[in-house]
Design a protein that fits this description.
Length: about 500
């Protein structure tokens, strides 16, 4: 019931105003402005509803797979890769590779942070060294609009943990009771005679300064826990304010009404045929337009990437249903251990404007002396043809060279067969899946040089046979030494969109 209005004297009015001014809560601490250039693509608008989704992920242990990829969706099940399935953020710090990204939004919605594991298995260091002598730092980016991001920086969160071997799979959640963020991650270290992964946590207000790490989750005995993710459940559906999904031998679901204590085990996904020996990296999220929740799990054992499950009662593990393949589409790239963030229509538009449209980095390779013909794959052979159908058989991602990504070299990845590259084999060319051997990387790497027949065009010198160049001969691709004018023309190409 609305009370009747009261008449205020001037003195009473002044008193009310003073009381109001002294009652305004202090503004929560925010991070310094990101040093990314360019104006904000979207203005914070707390009233705008979330109508779409942003997924950040990595793709695997390839030279560019351990970086940050973005995909967007309007229904949370069908995804479109941004930037032509190429990375949108690349780490230049620490191990120069990142995995397991987590997106964090401030309560006001005016700032975002992206946390990731500082790890690059593609460098050849191996899993044992990565676990027991890896980076103790996380990689952090920040943004005000999801489009313009700061340079990456390292946060040494596990430095005070005795004999810490790594800091993996970071996540963060805002703690309204404390007015800060709880950042949590897995660290492998010996404790009480047991060397295993445990979850530690730290507190921060700005993702620059962190409190000393403290133990968060320590499973009994020798059972480790490699990752966990917490989701706040509006209305405490199922009787809990928070749910937690963890990789601890199973994908275990827990509930609590507090962030750091009071957790109750509710069950796991073994009943759905998804034991922890097959899946990890869970993502819990709520669908924007209905009382339904999603749980994505990374099928790491088979290398197939994410698989979505859905439920209307996220606190009941037995209610999660594996979606049929006809009910979802994960886009062109393989999606591994990542994060899903609800976004507004304006944010979706800005993201697609920045990284959508004609995919960045996707090109065709046009013959110099047969300009109606383009390099294409056909039945895993490589040739130049006119009127290529389907067109995507002649589209390539020209990526940093697999054998020497920092040396100005390139490799050619198929658009419709991600992970497959042009390589020479007995001087002939084939389209083959990257097996990550040194021989494959060398055979699939080329130095881009000025065109041998026309300096305004390009030629491609073999990385491991530098006296030979990519050329066509009877319309088939091969690498050969180049001598005559015909040879030079056959070895010259133009890169087109």
């Amino acid at each position: 019931m609305t009370p009747a209005p009261r008449r205020l004297t001037l003195i009473g009015l002044v008193g009310v105003l003073l009381l109001a001014l002294t009652s305004i809560p202090a503004r929560p601490a925010t991070a310094a402005s990101p040093d990314a250039a360019g104006p904000s693509a979207t203005s914070p608008n707390a009233a705008a509803p979330d109508t779409a989704y942003l997924m950040a992920h990595f793709t695997g242990e390839s030279p560019i797979g351990e970086q940050i990829y973005f995909a967007t969706s309007t229904d949370g099940l069908r995804w479109t890769d941004l930037n032509g399935s190429l990375p949108v953020l690349t780490s230049t710090v620490g191990e120069r590779g990142v995995r397991d990204p987590a997106l964090v939004r401030s309560p006001a919605g005016d700032r975002f942070w992206l946390l990731a594991t500082d790890l690059r298995i593609a460098s050849g260091k191996g899993w044992d060294a990565a676990q027991h002598a890896g980076s103790r730092s996380l990689v952090v980016w920040e943004s005000t609009d999801l489009v313009n991001w700061s340079a990456p920086r390292l946060a040494n969160v596990a430095g005070n943990i005795p004999s810490a071997g790594c800091a993996w799979a970071p996540e963060a959640i805002y703690d309204p009771a404390n007015g800060d963020y709880i950042v949590y991650w897995a660290t492998i270290s010996p404790l009480d005679g047991v060397d295993k992964a445990r979850i530690y946590y730290s507190r921060t207000t700005d993702f620059r300064t962190f409190s000393p790490a403290r133990m968060y989750i320590n499973r009994p005995g020798t059972q480790g826990i490699i990752d966990t993710q917490i989701l706040e459940i509006p209305g405490s559906t199922g009787g809990y304010r928070y749910l937690r999904a963890s990789g601890d031998g199973q994908i275990t679901i827990e509930g609590s009404n507090q962030l750091l204590s009071g957790w109750t085990r509710l069950g796991d996904l073994s009943g759905q045929g998804l034991p922890g020996s097959q899946v990890e990296g869970p993502i819990l999220h709520k669908f924007n337009d209905r009382n339904e929740w999603g749980l994505y799990v990374d099928q790491y054992a088979t290398g197939r990437g994410y698989l979505p499950l859905t439920t209307t009662n996220p606190a009941a593990p037995g209610s999660y249903r594996v979606r049929a393949t006809s009910e979802y589409d994960l886009g062109a790239s393989r999606k591994r251990h990542g994060t899903i963030l609800p976004i507004t229509q304006a944010q979706l538009t800005a993201l697609r404007s920045k990284w959508g449209g004609t995919p960045a980095g996707v090109n065709r390779i046009q013959s110099y002396n047969y300009p109606d013909r383009y390099v294409r794959h056909y039945d895993f052979d490589a040739r130049i043809d006119p009127d290529v159908n389907p067109l995507v058989d002649s589209q390539w991602r020209i990526v940093p060279g697999l054998a020497n990504p920092a040396g100005g070299t390139v490799s050619f990845e198929s658009v419709n067969y991600p992970g497959y590259y042009l390589r020479h084999y007995n001087y002939d060319f084939v389209l083959a899946q990257n097996d990550n051997t040194a021989t494959f990387r060398g055979d699939a790497t080329f130095k881009r040089v000025a065109g041998l027949a026309d300096p305004a065009a390009v030629s491609f010198q073999s990385y491991n046979f530098p006296d030979r160049y990519l050329r066509h001969y009877s319309y088939l691709l091969r690498i050969d030494p180049i001598g005559s004018a015909v040879d030079r023309a056959d070895a010259t190409f133009r890169i087109t969109g």
